[in-house]
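Hallway conversation turned thread

IA: we were arguing at lunch whether anyone had actually written out Carbohydrate ABC transporter substrate-binding protein (CUT1 family) end to end. Turns out nobody had. So, for the record, here is the sequence (425 residues) and right after it the structure tokens. Reply here if something looks off.
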Amino acid sequence: MIRKPLLAACVAGLLALTAACGSGDGGGNESGETALTYLVFETPSLDAKFWDASIAAATAQTPGVKINKIVAPSTDRDGYAKQLQQSGQFPDLLQSITPSNFVGAGLLKPYDKTWIDANFLLPSANSLKGEVYIPPTNSQIVPQVYYNKKLFAQAGIAAAPKTWAEFLDACAKLKAKNINPIELGGADPFAASMPLVGIISADILGKNKNWLQDRYADKVKFADQDVVTAVQKYRTLVSSGYFDKGALGVKYADSITRFTSGKSAMYPMGSWFLGSVPKDTADDFGSFPWPTDDGSVVVPFVGGGSMAISAKAKDTALAEKFGQAWSLNPANLKALIETDGAFPMLKGKTLDDYGVTVTQVFKDSYAYVGQDNNKVNAIGWATNDDALPPGLNDAFYAAAQALFSKDDVAGEMKKLDDAWKTAVQ
């Protein structure tokens, strides 16, 4: 699972503890089992029934373990995990957190490398300084550009654009037909940032995969001219009227509905959107990578995964066995594939092995994962060594929203550099 804001977050205030929540001090019980706490999150698709079934299946393969489920009260799993840690209740197992926010404090235990290498297509997708703290069970592309084939046809657009010039031409043709070219859920910061994620991933990281490492080394900056020039493309889209004027007031959930109902022709979004494609009109939708100047394919890639293990768990070996069993269960990935648009990354399996029913646009999008193309770590979404410093995601989102209504690209990029300096001090 990818760390992302989810459609219809967990019900506010929900904190379901199936048993006392301890960080491992509550170890054994009368039956001789070791009790481990497991932080999860709920959504309409990944509901209590899903988690209970997945826990039961993994428990059956892990003799001697008893799992006490904790449900995060919001989508901010990292923030909640930190609250629990501060109160001495850091969970033994933590689903879909950002490891880089916890590794520095020695809170997480890495998985066995031999097991990781043996079971996953891209073993290093989630690697932090050579260690893997969350098994890379699935992946997503953040963003792809989804498009409505019927609206493209109405505007006389014969094929999905590959170059930036073709993309602008498509936008102009759509606008000329009174079709809103690009949907944007600008009221939700992460959704507002999608065009910026695409632009920087394609134009900057696509030319220098090590850009974020260079930024950590202070060799490059957001205020550098090449970044400013790239981000100016976003202002071009805004000033040309290729987004709805009220896009900053559109919520993420509403942006999905607007796009799938034909109110906009294109929608830059993470591939989890594929779980929202209406089955009865799925053939009306296609996807393409964010366009580059020369038409080369750059795929902003994110390795997702399952659970992290607390280094302070009562029995770290038992916790790892549970995590391994959960991570390799095709039934867990089936739910993620069909409802969350996750691309499975287990070795030796095809989509048929998961028993899933997926759309053609899912298959076409998934194809980019296996192709030999220029994959980069999507800025702001990677959980490996290219993860942004704490707090930078919020600064990045703020810049995206600000640039919808102001021209000062250089000024906003300088703010990101200032925020970076503060974050790494």
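OS: looked through it. DSSP finds 16 helices and 15 strands in the chain.
IA: good, adding that to the notes. Residues 409-424 form the longest helix (16 residues).
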